[in-house]
Amino acid sequence: MTGGTGRLGQRLIGPLQEAGHSVRQMSRRGTGPGGVRGDLATGFDLATALAGAEVVVHAASDRGDAWQVDVAGTRRLVEALDRDRLRHLLYVSIVGVDRIPYGYYRAKFAAEQVLLASGLPVTLLRVTQFHHLVDVLLDGARRGPVLPVPMGWRVQPVDVGEVAQHVVDVVGRPPTGGVVEYGGPEDLSAADLARAWAVARAPGTHVVATPLPGKLGAAFRDGAAVPTGGERGRRTYGQHLHG
Ligand SMILES: NC(=O)c1ccc[n+]([C@@H]2O[C@H](COP(=O)([O-])OP(=O)(O)OC[C@H]3O[C@@H](n4cnc5c(N)ncnc54)[C@H](OP(=O)(O)O)[C@@H]3O)[C@@H](O)[C@H]2O)c1
């Protein structure tokens, strides 16, 4: 697994072991159970980290350096893998990377193309925003007692533990050679989420839905971040807030 110290990666180790995998997980820090060091940005120790891997869950990412880590790093990963041993490589991507004009998403889409062109047995699992990320974004958007949110944006956030379990399920099946989607149980507006968050985390905050012009806003309003197929998690954002 790559990204074993990440928010998703940390939740993957236990379920992968329970499914019978012997887990080695790689990150720059290399901490945690079965942790080894490897750097996708430089290629440092990648071949050692990947030696003998039959299944790879690629969950490392760096939003601040995505072209180097996610795109070039995925190319380095492909080159460092033992092609003869590999049975399945699952890449964790994001719903809408093909439609939403946002720099980080463009890099994720480019990383998908690297994998599709690699000839390896891959599955590209596009998932929606984790509940925690929604919390962080809303907290960051608050300006005193006012919380502005983009009007009409549709999102379908998901529980990270359910994503981890789904990753384990999907990687245990034959590779699809293409995209699979996964999201939470509810298609919600950003304002719905913000109101629920405000009640639970910042009482007295006023949510103000504001029109956001441009192609990015149009894509979110059009539902580009909402999955059209695949399975769904069960845990709602409300349960996350109050759980
Ligand atoms: N967060 C969300 O809401 C969300 C939604 C949909 C999809 N996803 C996708 O799910 C995946 C996991 O997301 P996350 O939120 O769990 O990420 P995260 O918490 O930011 O963790 C990123 C992981 O990547 C590792 N990493 C970063 N740069 C690296 C490098 N140069 N070489 C090797 N490892 C490196 C980090 O470890 P070190 O710092 O120790 O290197 C860390 O383990 C990502 O691909 C993301 O795009 C996330």
UniProtKB/TrEMBL annotation:
SUPFAM superfamilies membership: NAD(P)-binding Rossmann-fold domains
InterPro entries on file: ComplexI_NDUFA9_subunit, NAD(P)-bd_dom, NAD(P)-bd_dom_sf
UniProt GO MF annotations: protein-containing complex binding
Domain NAD(P)-binding: 3-130
PANTHER family xref list: NADH DEHYDROGENASE [UBIQUINONE] 1 ALPHA SUBCOMPLEX SUBUNIT 9, MITOCHONDRIAL, NADH-UBIQUINONE OXIDOREDUCTASE 39 KDA SUBUNIT-RELATED
Protein's recorded name: Uncharacterized protein YbjT (DUF2867 family)
Species in which this protein is naturally found: Blastococcus colisei
